[in-house]
Amino acid sequence: NPAGTRAYKLYIPSGYHGQALPLVVMLHGGTQSPDDFAAGTRMNLIAEERTCFVVYPAQPSEANAAKCWNWFRPSDQRRGQGEPSLIAGITRQVMRDYSVDPQRVYIGGLSAGAAAAAVMGATYPDVYAAIGVHSGLACGAANDLPSAFTAMRQGDLPTSYGSGDVSTVLGHEAIVPTIVFHGDRDNTVHPHNGDHVIAQKRTTKLQRNVHRGRVPGGHAYTRTIHTDARGRAILEHWEIHGAGHAWSGGSPAGSYTDPRGPDAAREM
To answer: Is there a contact between 139 and 163 (Cβ–Cβ < 8 Å)?
Structure first.
């Protein structure tokens, strides 16, 4: 489209025979690739079990030297332009080429990919039924490179947060259901950013329930679930104790993974 082009890889489960299936869009983190991200998250194995498509858009080094999605640029935080238009375009292309249930299209990511997923949930709430934000940042958490580094290092939001273009983006009545994972020892993206993702969407109408647990032989975690009046989980926040900047429960076959769980891909 006018913003450019992006390559992608699509996983088609063996159980696909033309029936309408869910689609999961997975946005990799910095320095990663679709193959690396698929291996690390094991999302294709889950897609095979659950019979759904998974598409992995690729961010090239020409667009960002570290192959990060440019979630912090105002031009890449708006519907109909920049990277949001490209990611939505890939989503719609897969929906045209294959039989996809339009009510069950989801998007998630890690780090810069998670921040981009948060942007997609805010700018295309009509496309994505739910979003997953792993070690990422809220939509509008930064508006340039300096504020991006401030948000990542300190978990502070820019003074312009909640004003201008982004607030109009976030003005939707319906909350897009969101699941957040963040390690409390993340030295790359401050854990406060996970709180900001939830706070941005939370309303007083939601009930809050807190569960604490531990993966056998792995990390302890605090799982906070926000439910609506009908008891449906709308927001879910996994704080993983002792975990750093890595996909929780991932495979060492991919980069930035922590096999000590909990299994973020399965929970998503």
So the answer is: no
Helix (H) or strand (E) holding 149: helix 145-154
Amino acid (one-letter) located at 230: R
The whole-angstrom separation of Cα 230 and Cα 252 is 39
Q: What is the dihedral of CA 104, 107, 108, 111, to 10 degrees?
A: -170
Q: Where are the beta strands (DSSP E) in 63-217?
A: 100-110, 130-134, 178-183, 207-214
3-state DSSP assignment of residue 234: strand
Token output for 223: 């799982």
27, 38 Cβ separation under 8 angstroms: no
Residue 14 scores a pLDDT above 90: yes
In the annotation, is 135 catalytic? no
Q: Higher-confidence residue: 214 or 169?
A: 214
Residue 201 has a pLDDT of 87
Q: Six-digit token pair at 168?
A: 């109009």
Q: How confident is the model at residue 156 (pLDDT cuts 50, 70, 90)?
A: confident
Catalytic, out of 111, 135, 147, 248: 111
DSSP assignment of 171-211, as one string?
A: --SSPPPEEEEEETT-SSS-THHHHHHHHHH--TTSEEEEE
| Token pair listed for 114 | 């998670």
pTM of the model as a whole? 0.94
- Give me the sign of the Cα torsion angle 151, 60, 134, 245: negative
Minimum mean pLDDT among 112-116, 202-206, 256-260: which range?
202-206
pLDDT at 157: 76
Whole-angstrom distance, CA of residue 256 vs CA of residue 248 = 9
Pair of tokens at residue 200: 């941005």
CB of 80 within 8 A of CB of 155? no
